[in-house]
UniProtKB/TrEMBL annotation:
Pfam families: ParA
Keyword Coiled coil in annotation: no
Protein name, entry field: NUBP2 factor
Gene that encodes it: Nubp2
Keywords of this entry: 4Fe-4S, ATP-binding, Iron, Iron-sulfur, Metal-binding, Nucleotide-binding
GO molecular function annotation: 4 iron, 4 sulfur cluster binding; ATP binding; ATP-dependent FeS chaperone activity; metal ion binding
One BP annotation, GO: iron-sulfur cluster assembly
InterPro entries: Mrp-like_CS (IPR000808), Mrp/NBP35_ATP-bd (IPR019591), P-loop_NTPase (IPR027417), YlxH/NBP35 (IPR033756)
Alphabetized PROSITE patterns for the sequence: MRP
Amino acid sequence: TLAERTNLAGVRHILLVLSGKGGVGKSTISTELALALRNAGKTVGILDVDLCGPSIPRMLRVQDSAVHQCDSGWVPVFVGQDKAIALMSIGFLLERPDDAVVWRGPKKNALIKQFVTDVAWGNLDFLIVDTPPGTSDEHISTVEALRPYQLLGAVLVTTPQ
């Protein structure tokens, strides 16, 4: 559809942050990468598709923010005084930040697809996608939804053990 083309049309590079297991620091790497790119003068967005542990809103101190609708979809939350990082996370859609998300595959996959197609990112140099731990359906859904844009790169976070 047109919305699928237009909402990511202004994004130059998409970077997935992945790992094979939890607790290795994906969200920390995603956040630090976004801050470093912003400090280098780039426009940056973060898409937090870690549906069970959306920690980036808390890391960037915007956990009390709300997501609003506009004509082209959801407006991401803009972070910092300069509003230089755009952030979309399921954490903004929960009643309370500590609510558990106990969704099965199809519902999770539909939300990820909606995050990819329905967020009005505007013009970004980089969109960083923070994924959940492991190698689950969410990763396949994310890559499938982003495949048409062919701007994909990945950072694989590992630890010594």
